[in-house]
Amino acid sequence: MDIIISSNTNMPIYEQITSQIKAMIMSGTLHTGDPIPSMRALAKSLHVSVITVQKAYEDLQRDGFIETTVGRGSFVSARNRDFYQEERQRQAEAHLEAAAGIGRQSGISLEKLVELLTLFYQEGP
User: Fold this and answer.
1) Measured between alpha carbons, how far is 43 from 51 in angstroms, rounded to an integer?
2) What is the helix (H) or strand (E) element at residue 75, kind and residue range?
3) How far apart are CA 12 and CA 56, in angstroms?
4) What is the β-pairing status of strands 35-36 and 73-76?
5) How far is it, in rounded angstroms, from Cα 16 to Cα 56?
6) How confident is the model over 78-124, as pLDDT tens digits?
7) How many CA atoms lie within 13 A of 95 on its CB side?
8) φ, ψ for residue 20, nearest 5 deg
9) What's the rounded Cα separation, in Å, for the pair 22 and 93?
10) How many angstroms separate the CA atoms of 36 and 74, rounded?
11) DSSP state for residue 63 in the 8-state scheme
């Protein structure tokens, strides 16, 4: 599992781990039932504390992204696609909220912001 920890960010290490695993699940890199490395193995490979990885796994489990079974390990949850779609929508809302704030502060009209969003959406990736 390729997780990159950056020291050039204000985001705590456990949140970096959490967000990258969520991204792998939502992008389809990790599939339902796929095993996740043990906390100790991931901590060792990332050179971080097991407690840091434990916090990330607890957050992932609480949010429904992974399931952990004592003695078996942690696996990508069998949650349905709607759950992942909801998470992606929350991420989009956060970006839109930031864009709206920038627009208000900079005097960019709502119509211009809607026009830009429409353009970006229609152009696609």
Assistant:
1) 8
2) strand 73-76
3) 10
4) antiparallel
5) 8
6) 865 667 778 788 889 999 999 999 999 999 999 999 999 999 989 97
7) 8
8) -70, -40
9) 17
10) 5
11) T
